[in-house]
Amino acid sequence: MSKQKPSLPKGTRDFGPAEMGKRHFILETIKKVYQKYGYAPIETPSMENLSVLQGKYGDEGDQLLFKILNSGDFLSKTDQEDISSSRNLLPKISEKGLRYDLTVPFARFVVMHQHELNFPFKRYQIQPVWRADRPQKGRYREFYQCDADAIGTDSLLCEAEIVLMIHEVFEKLQAKQPNSLDYAIKINNRKVLSGIVEVIGASGKETDFAVAIDKLDKIGQEKVKEELIDRGFPTESLQKIDPLFSLSGDNRQQLNHLKTFLSTSEIGLKGVAELEEVLTILEGFGAEVPQLEIDVTLARGLSYYTGAIFEVKPKNVEMGSISGGGRYDGLTDNFGLPNVSGVGISFGVDRIYDVLEELNLFPESNQETTQVLIVAFDEETWKYSLKALNALRVQGIKSELYPEPVKLKKQMKYGNDKNIPYVIVIGSEEMKSGKLTFKNMQEGSQSNVELPEIIKQLTNSSVN
Amino acid sequence: MSKQKPSLPKGTRDFGPAEMGKRHFILETIKKVYQKYGYAPIETPSMENLSVLQGKYGDEGDQLLFKILNSGDFLSKTDQEDISSSRNLLPKISEKGLRYDLTVPFARFVVMHQHELNFPFKRYQIQPVWRADRPQKGRYREFYQCDADAIGTDSLLCEAEIVLMIHEVFEKLQAKQPNSLDYAIKINNRKVLSGIVEVIGASGKETDFAVAIDKLDKIGQEKVKEELIDRGFPTESLQKIDPLFSLSGDNRQQLNHLKTFLSTSEIGLKGVAELEEVLTILEGFGAEVPQLEIDVTLARGLSYYTGAIFEVKPKNVEMGSISGGGRYDGLTDNFGLPNVSGVGISFGVDRIYDVLEELNLFPESNQETTQVLIVAFDEETWKYSLKALNALRVQGIKSELYPEPVKLKKQMKYGNDKNIPYVIVIGSEEMKSGKLTFKNMQEGSQSNVELPEIIKQLTNSSVN
């Protein structure tokens, strides 16, 4: 075949070692927190039957599914009418698609494994998803989702623990001081939104209200009101909502104001009671989460939420929400298993990456990288180095010997390019005396020490 | 939409928490060993342009590629001739495919990033691949590959280190005694095979020889000879190879016999010299690898190997090779970058899983699972439990409180089904005295101790 200049499909990315180190830092942090709270990992296949995926994400979502062509002579079972249009042909030549999110595959998983699962079932799932979206800055056709859901229980402990998990993840991600990420963990409840709609006399228009109020951050209060009028809300109803834009006081005080506002709405008061209970459970933990903010204007677009909703918003970086979730009913309704309530959270890995990069919050050292490089002068010292290399590795120290005794400069460049923090130089002097030249590349210092002492220093400084 | 009974595409699998724990045990073990030897992680997209994938795996491989349908009105740019056959239509409606292995995407990666990379470049890559193969026992349409390759150096240090990595991986995978996996790390060199073919007077038939001798394990010596005759090897040439089936002595002695056998073949002797050098480097390390076996009948089917070849074969379980690799030239020739030599190894995760399962070698405890479950009698003790839960988690102990104070039996069943090794029971007595009931579910023992003592015990027993 002819030589070709290779390229990547639009909207997809390669990750080299440096990016991988940073991505793992984020993913491992989230994974450890999920595990600490009792969430267990699952994985589902990249492909699902189109019957599982289609009709779950709206018409636009169906368009964005990547479809897989049937194998072999895919046209063999088609007739003249099938090939008359893409719409007719599609179901005849494609039965599978790539997953679009982790929620629908999870619902399918729960239904298929319902008799093996242990309810309440708390699972996390960290896998890529694919969307045939128009690629643009920060939007890719393949990206990781990072979800945790607890299903089969109504307990508000789950909501409280989601707040704690979010808090713990972002505290761990910015362990490196003095930079820091200022962020809000916003919480609301869909029942509060329903109550507001009821109180202002617009019952039945919950979704319109949610869609409009969701834009508050972007378009401001006046434009939201205009949109509500366009959506058929009477002008007088909108005056009633004004107090909601300026609820004063701490979370408890805001909830008290809200109770007065919603005093005639049963569902609204239920929503407030749920929010209060979440605060009570958090107090029970004795854990401080100063970032937690009740926000009655938080709506989240998705229609399937029925209780608590969450969103994390950076305050000192220009960036949309970096994490979000909420409680839903009927996760598995589509697959014939009704009444499965759950609550979930999802971290936006790509956005978190960009935020940490902008604030320079990634750790200096990549924990996955070689810790020490051995550099040898010639054939003889190179062979001598093998034993030192072995001794380092036996102690679990990530180490390399440059594969050939080429010019020192070339070997040092290799270590430098790879960001290896320590170098051991072995020449004939070192071989004779047993005292090796040990360089700390970050500090630019060096000493002559025997191998056991080097191992001791590396083991102490090790981040393993 | 109508309710539907969901299903999985043929040849794909869900992994629940128990399987995930075992799979992570394997993958993390391999990953840590790769890192210890200086291999750095990369990831490439699941989709590649078909121009990158096609023509690299032979005609059969091209058939087995999963192709992705172009988005939108995919037929819009086709004409009557295009839709006359699948073969004509395919290139018009599909431009992307799912990766078939990690080697071709790696070659593409190297070429596209050649100016940023640091040679010799040692990368590992652990990602799923997809093949539209007929599913059968142990063969899936989506499975993980787990590769490490060192490119841009001819140094036989890489070969020696691959032997050490294989050895370390399998020793770590069977840390649990007394069961053990008996296995051979077989090594040969393609140049030795070329030498043999030359010596028996069949130059030019290297590939035929490799394909036939590769079946020795399965069909035996006589059938291999028959196949060689079918492939046009003269009968007298086959008598000459007899000594090769019974080389005696240890690895060094076998290589000495081989040197005599190959004394008239320059390339054959080069192959022997390379094998000797690998042994010499391993001796230089001072590391013992008793499983290493020179095997001149090891051929490996793939045609692109040019130097060392490796294969790991279990001896006390019925199973094909569980790991393999070798040295190749011209990895990136297809993409216009010639003369890139490298050597790589790949672990067969699914087969290793089956082997460890059969020998009961997986660790008893799943390191990713909740370590302690708190069980409360009623509303009041449940609220009291939150502080204990927080204290456990602050110490990094994976812990859960059952989300509601339901019947004790139900809570205990949850812990049991989830294999949680410790349970703390909190009733009104415990609340008053501060001495909690602490159960070790594996030993069936229990004690009444205060929380700090429980934390101490859990931290000591912790495998974190």
The CATH topology of the domain at 372-461 in chain A is: Rossmann fold
Number of strands of chain A: 16
Rg of chain A (C-alpha, Å): 28 Å
The CATH class assignment of the domain at 372-461 in chain A is Alpha Beta
Helix content of chain A: 40-55%
User: Low-confidence parts of chain A, pLDDT < 50 over ≥5 residues?
Assistant: none
* Oligomer classification: homodimer
Which pair of protein chains has the largest interface, and what are the residue counts? A-B, 106 and 106 residues
Assigned CATH architecture of the domain at 372-461 in chain A: 3-Layer(aba) Sandwich
CATH homologous superfamily heading of the domain at 372-461 in chain A: Anticodon-binding domain
Look at the helices and sheets of chain A and give the structural class: alpha+beta
Strand coverage percent of chain A: 15-25%
Mean pLDDT across residues of chain A = 92
Describe the biggest sheet of chain A? 8 strands, mixed
**Number of distinct helices of chain A:** 17
What is the straight-line distance between the termini of chain A?
Answer: 46 Å
Order of strands, widest sheet of chain A:
1-5-6-11-10-9-7-8
EC number (chains A, B): 6.1.1.21
Main location (chains A, B): cytoplasm
Subcellular location (chains A, B): Cytoplasm
Domain Aminoacyl-transfer RNA synthetases class-II family profile (chains A, B): 1-403
